[in-house]
Amino acid sequence: MCAAISAQEKLQAAMQHKIVPNQEYLLQGSVLDSSKDVLIHRLRGLADNVDEQVETFQDRERVLTLGPVSGQTLTLYVRQAMDVRPGMDQSDTPWTMRYIGQPELGDKSRPTVLRNSIDVGCTPNVLEFLSEMGFKQDYEFMCKGLMFRKGRMKILVYKVYKNKTADNWEPLSMSHVVELSVLAPQGHDAVAEDVRNFAEQLKPLVQLEKTDYRRL
Amino acid sequence: MPVRPKRGLMMPLSMSENLARLAAKIDWSRSDGEEDGDEAAPSSAEGDGDADSQVTTFQQPTWPWESVRNKIRDAYTEVCVLSDVLSIARHKRYMVLDGVTQDAPEPKQIIQVISKKKGLAAAAQILSEGAERMRENLAEQRRNRNNNDFYTELLRLRQKWRLRKVGNNIIGDLSYKQVGSRFWLSGTFEVKKAEENAPALPPPAPGLPPVPPSPIIVTVPSELQGAAFIYVTIRKDQETLCSARLTHPGSTPLPVPQSQHWSDRLDAAQNVLFCKELIAQLAREAVQLQPRLPHMVIGNEITSTIFPGIHLVMGLAHSARPERRPAAAPLPPVPAGPLGDNNYVLEHSLHQLLRHMHHRNMHHAMPHPASAPMGMSKRRRQAGPGAASRGQLLKMVESETLLESIIRQARHVVLRMRTAFAIDSCAREIKDPLIVTHWNSVNSPTQSCCKVNIMTHGYDSVHRTTFLINVLEDSLRCVCRDGRVMTVSYETSELHYIILCQVSQHNLLAAQSLGRIMGWTVKSSSSGQGGGGGGGSDASQTAQSGGGGAASSSCVLSAPGGHCYVAVRCQPHGEPVTVSVAQSPKRDFFPTALVTEHKWEHLGGAFRQIKWEKMEGRNFLNKMELLMANLSSGTGSIM
């Protein structure tokens, strides 16, 4: 009973004081398929939970845009888990809808990309809902890979696949994307240092850096 | 001024240009020697001027390229022949190209011997070099094992504990932070080099040679020095209930690390840290939870009430500086009271519960899809799309605390002990039907199961009553064969009553089965009568109807010939067994004024109670058997 009351208080405090984590600190890089295994071994040693099997994931993401409304387009990312595990219903894992704000690169003092990110779980009819609202699908892709964690950090190593026709997925390139991210509330800039230190440990295998999308 | 040579760019020659260049090299006018000879021979042989000149004039080239063409044609013929020969040779069916065998040179024996010797010597050299290297390696390892220098010790330390270098010092970590602990005490220790002339340590046990001083000195923080353990006892007011004490030779309640070796000290320090975290977590929960009877936290000891009059006491026993005690002093006697009666099973459970907590802190389910935030359980992720209410969300957050778990386990331990004791005391008192119990060997910390068999000695095939007792935390559940499920509280008197009821029912059912075997018929049977019903005497015995148990039960059996009735009544309290017999013809029939004829003696007589203690027979069923055997013969009379 006492635990219930304190949980209630915490929820209310979270809503009032804005400690909902909505900032994402991100570093990205890529590694060739041929060197992916070395990287995976390294990550298995560095990451938490060495006694467990490495977690694989397979997600399908659709990017929907609405716009231009008063000169600005709104982009939403809808992601669905595609891998069906034994003992887990396809309906168990909810879809997520994500809003990602403009990434702030900052200068040399900021070690990671900082961007606003809001994640919500939703039911599978979100696509219908968004299309009714006027969103159009820009593109979609599938990513398949492995997931690690270290403390608060999430490390993803995945390969991107595109489809020309339905369910005909082909890899986009001969490399895997490596992503290092932390979701934290506003103002917790110290986690960026942790992210950078971890990235240093992967240095010779993969260069993780702030990617500027506008320059690509 | 140096003159720079002029360099021109020349493209590589094309194929036609190349051919022209090569053709230019050939001197077409020169004829080869053979042809000259042939020409000269026929001309000289014939000696005919005109014919020769005619022939020679015919052989003069009519157009300038004739000789070139002929030469090329001959060359082509030669090349065709060559290619044909090669293709035939390639097929190896008609022609094979074979090398010309050379004559083998005459072997000189002495040279062979010398060359073999050299070869063997070289091989032997390589092998002996390798063996030498391995021998050196082995010798070095053997030397290093006894080597006590700082760096080998440091290597061994590093193999077991986490170390890192901070500035000039080597700091190690013995806390459980890496596996999910969130305790505020930091378990860092420092590693230093020992001075050269440190005195030798006293021997760990008399008789062994003194241990050479270790070159590493490990400094453990002061609050983690010494040894500690958590004691868990269950006390009934002032005396201890749980005195299951496992001793292994040489152990005292506070195992004292006599050795100064760093591995023992670090292990002990880590144990102290774990125990401190455990007691801090329990104390925190004891203060936060608000049960009906509050828990008492005094210093390092937590007392909580599990049953009225029974307390669970958990505390931290920490002896701070054992090194101060000289090795020759005798070990202290086993202290009475809480330290002497530690329940090791509950202590182990506590350790496991804390480790479970650590594990839960670390292992959350990974997010699927991957972009979702981490650290949430699967149900929490589903809460949004699944439209969970606030109540459901709050329930998700709640989880059982350490203290609650251990109290539940302690309650179960006490209840199990009491149940076993109650059943055993019943079995001791009641000798007639035998009570046999089988406890399940596989149980959970909060639930055990026991099967109770009631049978009469010598008559186990006649009838056997079984029922199951499920021991939960604060209640018992009895499941009988006839489908009745009775849930009773932790009071032992209720269990006692249930067992007595089952015994009386067993007696009755066994008597019925025995009667059927012997050919008697069951005329009537009833269970669950109120006190005083049936063919009975004492109306003052009121039946207890608690727990749904039957009070007295009775049955009437009739002999095969029909001339005899036996009525049996069994009850849990009071007179356990009452047996009455009615016979016809009546023995005590005397014609009176109203009933004059003798034929009325064949109406069944009154039931007369039998003095059961005087009856012969080992036990109830044996007595019944003898009774029925006697009566069914027809001529037996018992009065």
TrEMBL record, chain A:
Primary location: nucleus
Entry-linked InterPro entries: Mediator_Med18
A Pfam entry, by short name: Med18
Coiled-coil annotated residue ranges, if any: none
Entry superkingdom: Eukaryota
A single GO BP: regulation of transcription by RNA polymerase II
Localization annotation: Nucleus
Keyword Signal: no
Annotated Gene Ontology cellular component terms: core mediator complex; mediator complex
Keyword terms, alphabetized: Activator, Nucleus, Transcription, Transcription regulation
A GO molecular-function annotation: transcription coregulator activity
Subunit description: Component of the Mediator complex.
UniProt family annotation: Belongs to the Mediator complex subunit 18 family.
Function: Component of the Mediator complex, a coactivator involved in the regulated transcription of nearly all RNA polymerase II-dependent genes. Mediator functions as a bridge to convey information from gene-specific regulatory proteins to the basal RNA polymerase II transcription machinery. Mediator is recruited to promoters by direct interactions with regulatory proteins and serves as a scaffold for the assembly of a functional preinitiation complex with RNA polymerase II and the general transcription factors.
Protein name: Mediator of RNA polymerase II transcription subunit 18
Organism expressing this protein natively: Amphibalanus amphitrite
Highest classification ranks of the organism: Eukaryota, Metazoa, Ecdysozoa, Arthropoda, Crustacea
UniProtKB/TrEMBL annotation, chain B:
GO cellular component: core mediator complex; mediator complex
Compartments, as annotated in UniProt: Nucleus
Coiled-coil features, chain-numbered ranges: none
Gene Ontology biological process terms from the UniProt entry: regulation of transcription by RNA polymerase II
Region described as Disordered: spans on this chain: 26-60, 368-390, 525-545
InterPro entries per the UniProt record, alphabetical: Mediator_Med17
Gly residues biased stretches: 528-537
Statement: the UniProt record of this protein carries the keyword Transcription: yes
Major localization class: nucleus
Keywords on record: Nucleus, Transcription, Transcription regulation
GO terms for MF: transcription coregulator activity
UniProt record similarity statement: Belongs to the Mediator complex subunit 17 family.
Name listed for the protein in its UniProt record: Mediator of RNA polymerase II transcription subunit 17
Gene, per the UniProt record: MED17
